[in-house]
Amino acid sequence: MHYLLSILSAGQTTVALIIFILLGEVLTHSRLTPQQKFWVRAIPLALLGVVALNLHLHVVTDGVFIDLRGAAIAIATLFGGLAVGAIATVAELITRFLIGGEATVADSFGIVTNFALSAAVFHFLMKDNVENITLKWILLAGLLVGVAEAIFLLLIEPLPYGVALFNEVGIQLMAVQLISTALFGWVLKSQDDHQRNIDTLEQNAKQQSENFHQIVGALSSAMAHRDPTTAGHEKRVAEFAVAVGRHLGLDESRLEGLYLASLVHDIGQITIPTEILTRTRCLRPEEFELIKQHSTAGYEILNEVNSPWPLAQMIVEHHENFDGSGYPKGLKGDEILLEARIIRVCDSLDAMTSHRPFRKAHREEEAIAQLQLKSGSEFDPEIVTACIRFLILGRDTPELFSGI
Length: 404
What we know:
The chain has helices at 2-9, 11-29, 34-54, 69-80, 82-99, 104-127, 135-151, 159-226, 233-247, 252-263, 274-277, 285-291, 294-302, 311-316, 338-352, 364-373, 381-393; strands at 58-61, 64-67. It has 404 residues and is mainly α. The protein folds into 2 domains: 2-198, Arp2/3 complex 21 kDa subunit ARPC3 (Orthogonal Bundle), CATH 1.10.1760; 205-401, Hypothetical protein af1432, CATH 1.10.3210. The protein is rod-shaped.
């Protein structure tokens, strides 16, 4: 306990720990390439060895400085690999020769031996395909470099002095290296575990997103085959909706959910007889009442799907009107999900500007006039403004309205 308290009380040790923690924050919150990650880890770990020798990250026992060079090499090798360990070793050797003194040769042998022992631990670690470095491996490396540091005290000349030092501080030196390796190793292990968890979550989220895109794409394709007259409608609505959502400041995750919901906003029509969907005349009241059920049907189809976005809610609300005159629940204003309000306007816009079996497509000017006329009643005024901006500016500034 005395040696642990001595290490922790050293001001340089505290500074080093803070640097390591900050380094971990950089690594776990940055998107670095593998090469960048290598150097971001290699440089501080190599500097740790230099600091251990030059600024004395140490405890003092009867006037003898005990630095943490062995711990620095062990940590660099375990958590950076052989290349990083070699860089740290070379940095320590150069620093030791620059410091000079009678113990230079003995210390240099000790530094090289520390790397050889740490490399052996790393080799067996890789041989066992260990992805997560456990405390067992950290302690083993710390013990080996500690023993090596203690034994190399015997090489300090003259021999009687080296033997006396070994007898006096050999056990303490071994304990210091072991405790220091465990201390720094725990910090880096915590950071690596945190980064591994983040990577796993991101990979799972990416896979889930890809699965949703495939499922939604298949549903959209099925709808297009069932009702060829509206082929491409869902895709255009999705592109319009993303453009409007981006203009309104939605983040990328919400835009992705909006895009997917727009692709299948009419999926409930799969429950409607095809002859009604493809009628070349205006629908009778009873037929329209049947059509109105598609939003609820779409909700029931997607409600059981485990999704990171409220897709079912977007679909069931995409025919609600801003003034509460829509269906199926008569919601109004902010009671309606923002994404559903966006789909409502974009759906109507595409319907007006597309050919239908019972009428020709409206001109763009006529569609804009209809949007303005129904702004505040059927449509959210802010979304209408964004849609009109899309129609007017979208062709000239497509980068403003790029899709998912």
